[in-house]
Amino acid sequence: MAGTSITKIAKPNSRQREILEVVLKHGWDYMRLLLSSNEAEEPELPPPTVLQRIFVDLGPVYVKLGQLLSTRPELLPPEYIEALSSLQADVPPVPWNEIEAQLNGELKQPLNTIFQDINHTPVAAGSLAQTHKAVLLNGREVALKIQRPGIDKTVERDIELLTNIAELVSGTDFGKYYDATSLAEEFSNALRDELDFTQEAHYTERLRRCLSKSSWFDVNQITVPEIIWDYTSQKLLTMEWLDGVPLLSAELTGEGHNGDVQAERNAITTLLFRSFLQQLFVEGFFHADPHPGNIFYLRDGRVAFLDVGMTGTLDPRTQGLLVETILAMISLDAQRCAQLSLQLAHPVRPVDFIQLENDYDRLLRRYYNLSVAQVNFSEAFFQLLQAARRNHLRWPSNMGLYAKALANLEGVARTFNPTVNLLDEIQPLTTDLMRRQLIGDNPLQQLLGATLEFKNLSLKSPRQVDFLLERVATETLKWNLQVSELTDLRQSLDESANRLSSSIVVGALILAGALVVSRDQTHRIPWLGNVLFWTACLLGLWLVFSIWRSGSKK
Question: What is the mean pLDDT of the chain?
Answer without folding.
Answer: 78
